Amino acid sequence: MALDDRTEQLAVKAAQGDRAALDELLRTIEPDVLRHCSRFLPCRQDAEEACQDALLQVARNIQRFEGRSRFSTWLHVVVANSARSTYRSLKRRSLEQAGELPQQRPDPRRTSVIAGSRVDILDAMEELEARKPDLIQALVLRDVSQLEYAEIAEQLQLPLGTVKSRIHEARKQVRQTLGESYT
């Protein structure tokens, strides 16, 4: 999510309390936020829900943006966390409803292979987060948000070598969880 200099300046003004800048910032970033949420969540409505949550988090927490790194880097973390939170919420609701509704198998003619793969990957990432929470953030920033290693190191305030090591280990753990079908 590479934002232009104008958007970065809006973020600085919004962090300083400028309400008009915040409103304009939210309108400007919404399409990019939705696009990134869609990388996590296969269903459009789920991605829209995560997008709205991310925008709300930006509005509520913009004063925490200190301007030490680029706003786009800060925003990646907010979006990734929001999408993962929405996924966990949807999964929890689905499990709660499973007891109330008859078990339905998805129709393979109407289910996207890509969407099914994303759900498997999200499940593997959720499992990794439960087992090794220090690995997940670097993995999400690199493989989902597609940040450069140096940006991740800056955002997480870790040495570059540590970031690379965490990403390598996280990928290895996710591959093990997914099994042979994903190698």
UniProtKB/TrEMBL annotation:
Signal peptide: none annotated. One of its GO terms (molecular function) is sigma factor activity. Residues 137-173 form the RNA polymerase sigma factor 70 region 4 type domain. One of its GO terms (biological process) is DNA-templated transcription initiation. Keywords: DNA-binding, Sigma factor, Transcription, Transcription regulation. Residues 27-93 form the RNA polymerase sigma-70 region domain. InterPro entries: RNA_pol_sigma-70-like, RNA_pol_sigma-70_dom, RNA_pol_sigma70_r2, RNA_pol_sigma70_r4_t2, RNA_pol_sigma_r2, RNA_pol_sigma_r3/r4-like, WH-like_DNA-bd_sf. Belongs to the sigma-70 factor family. ECF subfamily. This is RNA polymerase sigma factor. It comes from Actinomadura rubrobrunea.
